[in-house]
Queue: 2 jobs
Job 1
Amino acid sequence: MPDAVTMVEVSRGDFVESVHRGHAVISRADGRTVEAWGDSELVMLPRSSAKMIQALPLLESGAGASLTDEHLALACASHSGERRHVEKVARWLKDIGFDETALKCGPQVSEDAELAEEMIRTGEPVTRLFNNCSGKHAGFLTLARHLEANLEYVDPDHPVQLAVREAFEDVTVAPSPGFGIDGCSAPNFATTLSGLARAMAIFAEAREDGTARERAAARLRGAMFAHPELVSGKDRACANLMSAASEPIAVKTGAEGVYVAILPNRGLGVALKIADGATRASEAAIAAILVRLGALHRRHPLVSRYIDSPILNRNGSAVGAVRPTDSLLA
Amino acid sequence: MPDAVTMVEVSRGDFVESVHRGHAVISRADGRTVEAWGDSELVMLPRSSAKMIQALPLLESGAGASLTDEHLALACASHSGERRHVEKVARWLKDIGFDETALKCGPQVSEDAELAEEMIRTGEPVTRLFNNCSGKHAGFLTLARHLEANLEYVDPDHPVQLAVREAFEDVTVAPSPGFGIDGCSAPNFATTLSGLARAMAIFAEAREDGTARERAAARLRGAMFAHPELVSGKDRACANLMSAASEPIAVKTGAEGVYVAILPNRGLGVALKIADGATRASEAAIAAILVRLGALHRRHPLVSRYIDSPILNRNGSAVGAVRPTDSLLA
């Protein structure tokens, strides 16, 4: 199998201090590879980059018939736990007759640093609503209620997860070789990198007037593009790259160095995995690939910070940089 | 040049999710390599792993004649900014007629999570004393005063840094190809990985009744071993590995995946660099190499957590692990 390719270099002064290698695939919906780096057939866990796939049964089943684009963006989100995220998920749960105690995702300190400090000062408890996956879990609960199933919805044999697995295998066009348990306690199904890229291309090609699955995929991709800061948060890479794009695109990060992109205008899907799992590298690499494809301008201020990201010392001086290599950009 | 070697695997369920590659050298003081992985001649920045080298001129010059082992451990430290660290550095500065405003290292939030929260609650300001390098900077100031030099001691042409460079080139036994600016604004001199390992072996072999340099090196290595929690902090890897060792050893982490070890009983020095800069991997790798050498027992509770480090989800369940590969352990 092909080795990972050097994708990102971290420099300090005149020295390359660290390097990040990775794998990436640009695919069409029929499975044709447009371009690839490293091992396309790498078996990997997509982590949170699969959230739009995990949300498909919510819409296909009819469970989410009354949900707005904001709900759907949150279902696909790794949100920052800002007030707006937490309040919207709390209202969603209330609307379906639950509260935060029904969430199985565990608590997480808000990634909004100002809010996190405010909560420490005021003694406000860190609840499961602040978990970056709380919207995904609200979607799971909505589907569980619709299916009249029990509320142990993170059990891999629960009807919700069986539906997720079926959708996942359908859009990756292969049986999943298994799952790991994600940070939020839900199963995360494995696939190949090319399978994940193909799934993103299927999302890109999905017609708004197509099959139930196509309509669901088109709706989710549109909800992500319409609400980039609900999918992530203020000044997060997903929000910045979607906002900066010169055409409608949806992008999504996943833990351990995963990134995916959906490019409807081009009928393309992208999936990448940094071998060592570093987010600083996955952000640089997805930005570079989207610049390469022409969907982002490298000098756009919301893009250039990922193409040439300064490393600051504790006095605030730039002493190094994180940069994608020419293997991706040139 | 030889490629980096896979040193650490990160698993989730049945899947290897991420891998960390790196380079390592075990050396004798005369430069003979005992064992090596990857590229021994990798040019690298040792970052904080060089702090005991940066402290040599403090003792050799006589500037540190009245300093205790606690001072010297702090001079070699990347401390956690706990109360004891901050108070001891503040007292040191006061004793030489300075206060924290003389430090050039910039402020840093305490890595003692409980204290950091308390400081947010009480509004206590984050000062430069909390910077993990404040002890190193107190040492630089002590030397600057002794040399009757100005206080711009992080300038690469300042007498303090010229003395550091001379000592650095002497124990790495090669001219340094240059420097990067560290997180604390001091110059960090580059060397090869084999040069850094040889420097650690020179520290290991240094006789307490030897030359001025040998006496300084032996004193610093002893101060580190005597005060592992001043060199790092409560439950930090450096403290845990030094405390668990079955013989006196000194170990030190550096940013971007660097680790070094000094083994006086064996006359050996170790230096390793994780190519992607991940600390979770450098901790696993140095623990594995020290187990391999027999200086640590892999089942010691302060060691096993780095040999088989569980990954917990947000509900506190173990869902994966970080483990060194057999290339280091077996």
Job 2
Amino acid sequence: MVRLDRLIEELVTANRILAREGVVDSFGHVSVRHPDNPQLYLLSCSRAPDCIENDDIMAFALDGAPVDARGRAPYLERFIHGALYEARPDVTSVVHNHSESVIPFGVTGRKIKPIFHLGAGIGKDVPVWDSHDHFGDTALLVESMEMGRDLAKLIGAGATALMRGHGATVASKSIRQAVFISVYLEVNARLQKQAMEMGEVKFLTAGEVDKVASRTGPYGINRAWENWCRRAGRSFEADEA
Amino acid sequence: MVRLDRLIEELVTANRILAREGVVDSFGHVSVRHPDNPQLYLLSCSRAPDCIENDDIMAFALDGAPVDARGRAPYLERFIHGALYEARPDVTSVVHNHSESVIPFGVTGRKIKPIFHLGAGIGKDVPVWDSHDHFGDTALLVESMEMGRDLAKLIGAGATALMRGHGATVASKSIRQAVFISVYLEVNARLQKQAMEMGEVKFLTAGEVDKVASRTGPYGINRAWENWCRRAGRSFEADEA
Amino acid sequence: MVRLDRLIEELVTANRILAREGVVDSFGHVSVRHPDNPQLYLLSCSRAPDCIENDDIMAFALDGAPVDARGRAPYLERFIHGALYEARPDVTSVVHNHSESVIPFGVTGRKIKPIFHLGAGIGKDVPVWDSHDHFGDTALLVESMEMGRDLAKLIGAGATALMRGHGATVASKSIRQAVFISVYLEVNARLQKQAMEMGEVKFLTAGEVDKVASRTGPYGINRAWENWCRRAGRSFEADEA
Amino acid sequence: MVRLDRLIEELVTANRILAREGVVDSFGHVSVRHPDNPQLYLLSCSRAPDCIENDDIMAFALDGAPVDARGRAPYLERFIHGALYEARPDVTSVVHNHSESVIPFGVTGRKIKPIFHLGAGIGKDVPVWDSHDHFGDTALLVESMEMGRDLAKLIGAGATALMRGHGATVASKSIRQAVFISVYLEVNARLQKQAMEMGEVKFLTAGEVDKVASRTGPYGINRAWENWCRRAGRSFEADEA
């Protein structure tokens, strides 16, 4: 129970950090798989990330059914989260956002690729999911498990996908890592656009991406987490909840 | 009377939000139709949006005549508001601004089009009004009902127009929706410029714009409004005034 | 004496505003002609604009000699100010800055021109002064009356000039107007670059620039001034000191 | 001892300034050579620059061995610092960062050159170090003296180098000067990219770079330092520690 409380605290912190670092604005969300039951996940009710309090965190079954809603309205797009937890036992945390620099890539088909070491976590291939391909004219929202599963299928074993005319989704093994990748996906996209305008870009080699990935762990991520907690006005614990 | 007080409070909040979110700087304004008399509208006296207090809100007849000025000087460009309320019974709130990213579109004739779901509210067509076409060399300000009506005519049944060498105007059915469209008109313009530099852009289809529009309501807008109130240091009420 | 105190207070406010609005960083300065003696001007000692206090304001003769230094070190580049007051009896205030968006124009010879009504105050022609033309390899600083006069000559009867590899200078009839033009010179440059990247730009016509100029007065400038005072944490007086 | 305490205080201030001015985010570091023993240098333990306190400052031998770790974990990349102090007796302070605007230059081979007087300190030539040239696929980090020496060799007698897919390193004769160059390396890169997009750029001549360099001293740097201390919430001393 104490463990669950700490995890909820960490999830609220993640929401505030994503807002403070400009990855989400009034929309976007982050979830974590339930520590006691892998068939559930924790996600806020429908609220802007920077406004979220502990009591806003709800539990959902993988199909998106709330466990104990108590009048709280869920996010329409929670199916992004459930579908990824269903397809990927290795995934513990999911971020969905409308991070600005990634959107131009998603609507032009230009591929985002790791341009500096901190961007290596996005993976060697960042696919683009276009809801129009299988679902035609929609409100561009992932509003069913069917759509969520289609997105999860495209992500496959990867960490990230862009969503055409919408944003991006990140899946990772911990809250901190999912937030870390989300922040640096945005930075990588911003730097990559600038570099592409200046000439031929030397991206990270496949071997470099692998080497960085094998080295990215709590040592580096906690350094960022402490800094982001400070900026977001949240208390920091070195050990992940 | 209580209802009017709440609406004035909401209008002051809208001014502060537009300033905080970078849609207006020292100039620009937002109005609302009077709830008890559709032939009047409420608008601040001539002051920067971030400085406005409740006592600055004045009532105007549609032709721009103040109801009870009490020494307060009106905005010169209030005719933008009156002309839209006159032409459009469905319009309840109007925003006029010099939002930075839209200005380059207005002076080059490049069309702004919805590039992501949050930009759908700007509509399928965002026309550009050039005061020079009918009024020749002016100070570029809408300083008469004749000019206001010319602008309103171009907007027609739409929600937005750019103004060449000047800014933009947004007309909508509520204060919150007018602010929401104004914020995302700016974001959409910023993202669209970036995307155009990267290649052929896949904009939202007409069907997608319709689908998003049919889904955009208090559920989403209030989520942003709560966040913007927090950022602007204003109290939030879930129900629109 | 009271009048002088108010003017010094206004000059400190101008420094803080220029810093807050991003026109100056740790460098750059603003001066005002002495109200009792047109052969003197007031300017801070050598300090970053955002740090300046009333006691830092010194009086200088037009040739740059301090009236009563009391151990305070002057800015090396004060000759920019003196040379403009010497050449232009109509000038009451001068701003020198390294405002970021103007620098790329100054090193490429692209001309800045008014692109929206708030940019009209920069004038129809913004010349570029290159210290190398008459002075060869220097530290790019205006460190003598000879250099100051060369710059003032290029400005002629105008309000602005860019300085190659250095920044910009603005001369106007009041502190508030000089600050206003400095702020919007930066915004105009930023918007113009974006617009040039998008296609053929329709700048303000000469007639429009004249019309805007004839309309720009305390009514508009004070609205900005109140807002900037609020943002800079300075008290606001509607009447210029 | 008092002198060492003051230097540690100055080093913490430098960390906070680099964070506040956007030169470092959660990563990057700044060191200073030990005032009593040139075979040692002072550098924080592994922490984000904006979080660093006096007790985080550790002493290291030039080969990177901590003198008295007391459980504090060092930065992996401390070899950048040691290798420069080893190769360059004239160097007293080193900054390593991932400053955003320099990265696109490092991955495209476009050369950064001084574009305005405040950028002259970066030097006439800013070489790009590509770890891949001599070390193949790595995590792009400088994780040994061998790699540090390879970087130091490329820097030679210069002040700066970019690191492909990683960031930049600055070496200078004092903490304040190293920070000053780091800040303006970022600004110069940002302005240079904009200028290159606008046309042929007139960079500073070699003679101008020399003239500026000969004039850049405590007079100018302290002006910036006071401003940066104020912005970072640190107390300012005019004399360098």
